[in-house]
Amino acid sequence: MNAISITSHKSMMLFSGRAFPELADEVAKYLEVSVTEQAAYDFANGEIFVRSEESVRGSDAFVIQSCGTPINQWVMETLLMIDAMKRASAKRITVVLPFYPYGRQDKKHRGREPISARLIADLLKTAGASRLMTVDLHTDQIQGFFDGPVDHLLAQPLLADYIGTKYAGREITVVSPDAGRVKTAEKWAAKLGETPLAFIHKTRDPRVPNQVVANRVVGDVEGRLCVLVDDMIDTGGSIAKAAEAVLQAGAAEVVIAATHGILSAPATERLANCGASEVVLTNTLRIPDESRFPQLTVLSIAPLIARAIHQVFEDGSVTSLFED
Prior knowledge:
The structure is a single chain. By secondary structure, the chain is of the alpha/beta class. It is built from eight helices and 14 strands. The chain has helices at 21-31, 71-87, 116-127, 156-166, 182-191, 237-248, 267-273, 302-313, and strands at residues 12-16, 38-42, 48-52, 60-64, 92-97, 131-135, 150-153, 172-176, 197-203, 213-219, 225-233, 253-261, 278-282, 296-299. A seven-stranded mixed β-sheet has the order 10-9-8-11-12-13-14, sandwiched between helices. It has a five-stranded parallel β-sheet with strand order 1-4-5-6-7, with helices on both faces. Helix 2 packs parallel to helix 3.
């Protein structure tokens, strides 16, 4: 006999970073598994240590990390977790980043600038990630930065279903906060029943981050419920000014919907006082109590991530999750 034959089996293991363990616990609940215990702590000088408390040899490992504030700490922790699993002989490592860090820096606006989104992809691959799973990338081209399979999950069906159900029967106009988000707005309009489109014509100085000047509204918004859509809200300046501009143009009501609630100061104050009747976000990032306000609604992304993880583990189709 010159060979040994065995019947192999697959083993799923779920791991969570420290940025938002509650999301990983919720995903684990839908998958009917438990998050694998691991040791993780910081040394006095800020160095991070991680170690799985169980053997990961031969496993299909899924690392869930929501890279919120402080973003650089959680990026580094993710890389260390991946490296630890690679050296512990995990068969495949899928890194699940509900919010892709540095996604806004996907191209060079001027000379001598980095393409940071590409660097993050290179770091993940070098650390040992076999596959990347993320939600609503800032631009689709980021998928090409990672040298391996990328599962690009979409939160728009979740958000649009909520809006369409709650505001059924209203005359709705979908509004893009700038010309660059018109394609996203078109998908929203189709999902909500081919509603009219509008967008905000605005200017932005690329040398000054988080500052924008809203100019004028292009499209039919007078007397209508306007749904402002975007992928992320950081300091809230852009979307708040867009909401104010739409209301000044005669909109009856404004609802803001976005996937990623970064909510850096003073986003909470701006969103609470911009005139929007509701702000709908998902929990791709942890939203602390101090960042919440009366108009805020947070939808859970955990069921979508859980279904996608299940499809990947079973070698199924992630695309089928978004096909009507």
